[in-house]
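This section describes the prediction task in plain terms. A model, or a person checking by hand, is given the sequence of a single protein chain and must write out its three-dimensional structure as a string of tokens. No templates, partner chains or ligands are provided. The sample shown here is typical of the held-out split.
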Amino acid sequence: DVDSMVRDLVESSIRITKQSRLKEKYDIADKIAEDKIVEAMVPGKKKKEAPKQPQNPFEMLMNSAYGQKKEEEPEQEATTDVAMAREQVRHQLRQGLLEDQYVDIEVIDAPKGNQLDMSNEGMSIAIGNIFGDMMPNKTRTKHVRVSEARKILREQEAQNLLDMEQVTDDAIENAEQNGIIFIDEIDKIASGAEFTSGASVSREGVQRDILPIVEGSVVNTKYGPVKTDHILFIGAGAFHVSKPTDLIPELQGRFPIRVELENLTTEIFRILTVPENAIIKQNQELMATEKIKLEFSEDAIDEIAEMSYLMNEQAENIGARRLYTVMEKLLEDISFDIPETNGEPIVI
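The expected answer:
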């Protein structure tokens, strides 16, 4: 249903807010994690069981007079030994000498797979959560390397330091005030006025469903109600067959600023080289996995751009997707018959 896009937005907002809050807590969490690792590597003396209650007053007097002091002295010595050993381990830990050592740590055992998603209600409840707050968290012992133990404990402790209520409030406000929802392929729900039966009826139904969210309404999410009044909605579509005016008037009015894109010209080749994941870089990396160095000359890049432009003009205009077909054809032989190059680059 259309409400799910607002829920997805809130989920993203929660994730981003939580991540930034966790980063703030990492310094404290690191210290606690270090203490726990040191404690796991040098366990202290286990507490003795509580002594049995004396049966009569004389026994009590005898114990207090003779027994207690004798027991206390060795216990204090043991405590100082443990403290010294721990200090030594802590020093080695900070120097990174114990990273590959194995250690047993206590981790919170999160139950899996009891998520019930009641999509129609827009609520998902975990069965564990219903009774979760009444029961203490289960823990289990995990046998891991120190380097991994540090990561696990750091995350766990940072989570414990988080105030999730505050995170949720901030995340919802962030989604309401700064959220952007991009509705792609909006042309697929526009239908011309001449067809009033069959598929177009259901398309109009989808538009009517989208309308209240774009206009501004309250959507219930599992984190609480979210207002969509100030969320920015951007619709996009290729209006070849249908026109923007084929949308229902109310929806048109909610997308007041219209931007039309020009056809791509030969200037297109900037996207062959400039972006971080440009298609030419992708193909070079792909060939590099087979130890083949692929190089493109400047005029080759111009020619790829020229061919893509001409094919878009003469055949169907599919925009930048045309680059893929041209590159595929160009590198077909090299891709299928990987040549023996002896380390020399292949120049296109």
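For orientation: The mean pLDDT is 82.
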